[in-house]
Amino acid sequence: MARIDPEREVTRMTAIYAGMSDEELQETGSQPGVLTNWAFQALREEMKKRNLDWPGKDMPLPAEMPQNRPTEDAGNRPVVLRRYRDMPAAFVEKSVLDAAGISCFLQDDNVVRMDWLWSNALGGIKLIVREKDATEAERILSQRPLAEESNVGPEDS
Fold first, then answer.
1. What is the rounded CA–CA span in Å between residue 156 and residue 18?
2. pLDDT in tens, 37-52
């Protein structure tokens, strides 16, 4: 399992926010509590650059807020559980975790959908789960499908 690099994520979010109009930025900043720490940090810097007024201007980073510290410690950090070159396997395993009630999402799937050649350059499609769910998610995805188990004959036992 790979962790998401905070510096790269802030850089990625900074690039996204730099491409937004002032109105889009203010709309994004209208609910700062729903942003990740990294997104909030990048948004705050972009808003400062443009001298824009927004509700979260004077708020501390979400991680600095007392009510959010236990959440960070409780294993809610995103981790990359698996990487896929192709979309079908990624979608199947995401749906397996969704059915098991494990919160997850795919990163870079839309880019690969547009042009699959980008898959290698991006490091594949990434299946992201919360750190506290990673062990359970890996256990679920590592199980053999029932169809394979039912085809086991006496000579395979």
1. 59
2. 778 888 888 888 888 8
